[in-house]
Amino acid sequence: MDSLQEPRVALQTPSFSQEQADAQLRANEVTRQMSGLSIGHYDRTTLPSNSVMEDAYSEAIVEMPDGRKVGFWGIYDGHIGPAMSAALSRSLANSVALELGKAYASEILPPFETIAQALKNGFLAVDDHLVWDRRESLLEHAPQSSSITADPLSLPAAQFLKEAFTGSSALLSVYDSRTRMFYVALAGDSRAVLGRRHEPGSWTATVLTLDQYGSNPGEEARIRSEHPGEQDVLKNKRLLGSLEPTRSFGDLYYKWTDAMQDKVRECFLNDGKLGRQLAPNATPPYLTAEPLVTSVHIQPERGDFVVMASDGLWELLSNEEVVGLVGRWVDEQKSIGTEDGKKGWKRYISSVKSTVVGGNPTGQKKPQHSGSPIHPDDRFVLEDTNAATHLLRNALGGQLHDGEMVRAMLTLSPPLSRRYRDDLTIMVIFFDEGQGSIKK
């Protein structure tokens, strides 16, 4: 993906009017109240870049055995197709809820370690079912040789394993409204960031996740320790020189042995093709769906909000820019800090203090425009009543060139669009019940 500041020739002649651009930006936006959860509301939007969008999402409120309400928000960033991300949107929150139900049934106030293990168990149960259990089920019906074509599973084998053939990151957040604890589980490279008011017109950004990819020193150390002697286990900062995220659902190519992949080719796939051929799998599995889990105590009185998004957003905006943009949006719609707002976007962005929960931000992905001389006051704009759409518009260029950059980015169709942006899914969860939509 190229920098927003260096567009290619394809971006020079936008065909969208401002009205058409606004309609497309707002087409998928949603604002919802979460009844019984003691939060303000949350905003969501999506924008596809692939011909079939590979992102998916989920949200739910679940009542635990002791009667408490727990909120779930999930973003699933798929690759090699949408099958796994779609499956996670249907099943992951349910799997985690079952595990959390066990924890809450046994303890009134489960410690962090218990909640974290429940989240990990829920993640691994889904991946085990779709990748490992289905493999075993398929092998139970394996014919003795490839010449046997009457077996009922011979033709639909690829369909039976469609989720395992593809892959997906998963970012799942859980809010316990009784304790005000917010838990975040990540397997992959999406991100969650907490915004909290520091003082009038100033916010702090607390990163609740660490990007799990080859440039993360912790992930690199983990993978190399699990596969000693394999120099190319990470090549060009990618797993086996190919996959960027170092934790993921599905992706059987990095989990099954070569012999297992060959057996499936021989027995079930008439054309003899299982998919991409990678470097020899010397010591699989190379991938895990086990998430890293963090938590934070929510303080609604300090205007807390959480932004969750697939990596497409973080390739375009920094943590500080995201929190500053939403913070300014909040101040504007509350008619508080209006005079501060007149001082411009730079004040909001530059005043954001940034920290990381549970780790060092070394290796975190940086936005494409990092180091750009463009002034925030020349780029950012506030025009939308939905905070997620507000972030989307500014990620695509805001008011650069009088909005022409946004219109140009929206006119691009696949596969050209993938050279400039990924699929985008954005959620903004507000915990201050007084926060509403901005007044235009």
TrEMBL record:
Residues 40-431 form the PPM-type phosphatase domain. InterPro entries: PP2C (IPR015655), PPM-type-like_dom_sf (IPR036457), PPM-type_phosphatase-like_dom (IPR001932). Residues 362-371 have a biased composition (Polar residues). It holds the Pfam family PP2C. GO terms for cellular component: mitochondrion. Residues 1-20, 356-375 are annotated as: Disordered. It comes from the Eukaryota. CDD domains: PP2Cc. GO terms for molecular function: [pyruvate dehydrogenase (acetyl-transferring)]-phosphatase activity. This is Protein serine/threonine phosphatase 2C.
